[in-house]
TrEMBL record:
Residues 20-88 form the HTH gntR-type domain. It comes from the Bacteria. Keywords: DNA-binding, Pyridoxal phosphate, Transcription, Transcription regulation. Pfam families: Aminotran_1_2, GntR. This is Transcriptional regulator. GO terms for molecular function: DNA binding; DNA-binding transcription factor activity; pyridoxal phosphate binding. In the C-terminal section; belongs to the class-I pyridoxal-phosphate-dependent aminotransferase family.
Length: 492
């Protein structure tokens, strides 16, 4: 059977007049050709150099698309041989005489979700943001407690979870927050969820309608915009200044619904919201009847001397929904998070989470309750707070020593990451291609309203052992050297 070369298929489908970036168009073209069976399993793809030349696309663009498809399992590489279509991908086209589906069958909302930024493809490595150091976690204790609840003695924990989560865990969370964050909450206000994105999705589904508006920080946490848009909301990105989100009365529309903020340690810039700005946010929420979602994602690892009260503890109008997670304090794959909701909202929220998700994993929740109540959680937090403080200080020191005035670092000494703006001509795509050769995966800071030039990255140091910090920064410098040398020789 005669086969049309991939380069010709790409040229046929590329629309250079479309505002959609060529990288995204190329990804979708190859993705669809695999799913509709036109690129069958074990089919060898042309080299990035050849396809770049034939299709008139930069080689970096082709290489990044190939790498993404390899990461997602659509392609695989053979060293010294090339890139092939994966055997494990099942084409979407039915066999026989069944009609062929259109190549793009998703809703407009679904399309935005699938093409939006996603989580890092690997859970560890140099500079992957948001990843804690699991080598220090007391797994021997955790395994013993977990094993206890996965025995026949606790068969009653094998069903679905009701009432917003295991009651002993909700009690433990409420007691912990009362001490650590001065939150005033009853266990009935605590809703256990499986990850912060689920918490956000639940709020979106229960508390808003399609077409209403949400106000988030610029730059935002990567998942927030995706979840809100997937729920049909219009997202407004509000710029930050040194005091936090600069939201003003005139910016809020009549159909506004949510204000989403990370006031303790803004992700990704590290800005701490001022007391005056916190009061402004609460006043705006009361005036316009908005829900404020306060995401306190890494509250356990604040090192700054200034400890401002949470929005939830300041709220007098029952407008604040507080988010917390164990993914940063314990390990990311745990996927246990929680919300603290206003008392009047709690019954509806418990029913909604049961109707939508049928949550379970009560054994896991029971084990976590015991882990907290026996003091293991606090001891682990105390230990890791000191480690991350030392690690962050060393990381900052080494970055300034190696890059000097070519790098500007975010303020603050909290959390597991920092934001770094590099004075370089490299684009993120060019930098990322070089970084992957060194096993580094970093996230770009994406401002919706850019105000400065340069390459802005989120660099995670939580998962980098202290002894490896210096060498990791040296390798980061090597990535820039290689990238800028290639840029120079390419004449770009």
């Amino acid at each position: 059977m005669f086969e049309i070369p991939l380069a010709e298929l790409v040229l046929e489908k590329l629309n250079r007049d479309d505002k959609t970036p060529l990288q995204r168009q190329l990804y979708q073209i190859i993705h669809d050709l695999i799913n509709n069976g036109k690129l069958p399993p074990d089919k060898k793809l042309p080299s990035s150099r050849f396809l770049s030349k034939e299709a008139g696309i930069s080689r970096i663009t082709v290489s990044l698309v190939y790498e993404r498809l390899v990461t997602e399992g659509y392609l695989y590489s053979r060293e010294g041989s090339g890139t092939y279509v994966s055997k494990v991908v099942t084409p979407l086209v039915p066999s026989g005489n069944a009609p062929v589906m259109k190549s793009w069958v998703y809703s407009e909302r679904g399309a935005r979700l699938l093409l939006s930024e996603s989580s890092p493809p690997q859970p560890k490595g140099e500079f992957v943001p948001g990843i804690p150091d699991v080598s220090e976690f007391p797994f021997h204790i955790w395994r013993k407690i977990l094993g206890k609840y996965y025995s026949k003695k606790y068969l009653h924990l094998s069903g679905y979870a009701e009432s917003g989560g295991y009651v002993e865990l909700r009690k433990a969370i409420a007691a912990y927050l009362a001490i650590s964050r001065s939150l005033q909450c009853d266990p009935d206000q605590v809703i256990v969820t499986f990850g912060t994105p689920q918490s956000l999705d639940l709020c979106t589904r229960l508390l808003s309608d399609s077409g209403q508006q949400a106000y988030i920080e610029d730059p935002p946490y990567w998942a927030t915009e995706s979840v809100f848009e997937a729920g049909g909301l219009k997202v407004n990105c509000i710029p930050l200044d040194e005091e936090g989100m600069a939201l003003e009365d005139g910016m809020i529309a009549a159909n506004g619904k949510f204000i989403y903020v990370t006031p303790s340690h803004q992700y990704p810039t590290g800005v701490t919201m001022s007391m005056e700005r916190r009061e402004t946010i609460l006043a705006l929420a009361k005036k316009h009847q908005l829900w404020v979602i306060e995401d306190d994602y890494d509250c356990e690892f604040r090192h700054d001397d200034l400890h401002l009260p949470s929005l939830q503890s300041l709220d007098q109008g029952n407008h604040v929904i507080y988010f917390g997670t164990f993914s940063k304090s314990m390990f990311s794959g745990l996927r246990l998070s929680y919300m603290v909701v206003p008392p009047g909202l709690a019954p509806a929220m418990r029913r909604a989470i049961s109707n939508l998700y049928l949550p379970g994993m009560l054994q896991l929740q029971a084990a976590l309750a015991e882990f907290i109540n026996e003091g293991h959680f606090y001891r682990h937090i105390k230990k890791m707070r000191a480690i991350y403080f030392e690690r962050g200080a060393l990381f900052r020191q080494r970055l300034k020593a190696v890059f000097g005035n070519k790098v500007t670092l975010s303020q603050g000494n909290s959390g597991l990451h920092l934001m770094a703006r590099f004075n370089t001509l490299l684009s993120f795509e060019q930098f990322s291609l070089c970084a992957r050769r060194h096993g580094m995966i970093v996230r770009q800071v994406k401002f919706h309203k850019p105000t400065e030039h340069g390459l802005c990255l989120v660099l995670g140091y939580g998962g980098v052992p202290t002894r490896d910090i210096a060498g990791a920064v040296d390798r980061l410098q090597q990535v820039f050297i290689e990238g800028e040398r290639g840029l120079f020789f390419s004449g770009a």
